[in-house]
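>> received
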Amino acid sequence: MITTKTESALNCEKHGEYIATTTTTTYSPGSQPHEWTTGCLVCEQERIERREREAAEEAKQQRRQRIAINRKEAGIPVRFAGCIFENYVASTEGQKRAVAVALAFAGQFKTVEEAGSNLTFCGAPGCGKTHLACAIGNQLLDSGRTVIYTQAIELVRAIRSTWRRDSNESETCVIAKYRHVDLLILDEIGVSLGGEAEKTQLFDVLNGRYSEMRPSLIISNLNQKGLEECLGPRMFDRLMEKGNMLALFDWGSYRRVAAPKPRAPAPRPHRETDEEMSTRLIREGCERREAERLKKAVVQ
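>> returned
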């Protein structure tokens, strides 16, 4: 094989004159030589940068789609979908401590995961426990994490629904869904949850998450003693062990006492619905293909 290289001045319609290198390779005596000439280096660099921009935009679109899917599957109630830390009214020292605990849990979630830590909110109804829990969930969803919000009795019902003959899911699959999500927010612990069978199913999910070092956020209207009686000493000990966090909501109900109106928080960014996102992606794809078609037509 014989290879030779020669340089020559060529002209790029866009960037003007440039030095091109022509490589000629003859693989065997008497065979037809193969030639390859370099193009404009500036054009090539622009193509590389364009591909990188398109790849980055595609990655952003995929991330937005993934977040939209995660948010749809999170099950956060419509009433709490807009809950963020900024619109939680914290006027007392106890409320400020609760916000600080919630912010630390959400803001240091990677550390929380590594430690397999849990967070428990205990207190009377109407104190803002679910608001703060959903604020944590919304922040994690915005960062690309997976979250599931459910009430304890709903979790039990979801497991028991697999016992029907016409069920499309197995009990193992349903339990796995609650076990493997990044954060499980389990609300209303202690309400309508009195049977031993229900406690066993709840323990199965929480203990599985505990064993796999996956954080859980427990919300209960019970005090610590009542929560221990509800969950049983084994599960309660796991929730209260060293490294886990507990916030006591020991003030009056927001629903009964009119709190002073705070300044309006910054509006939460509009989140596209699945239909809006699908329409936008189709439109952007058509525009991109039309632009490429026009470029090819100009070159030809």
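>> Residues 1-39 form one domain.
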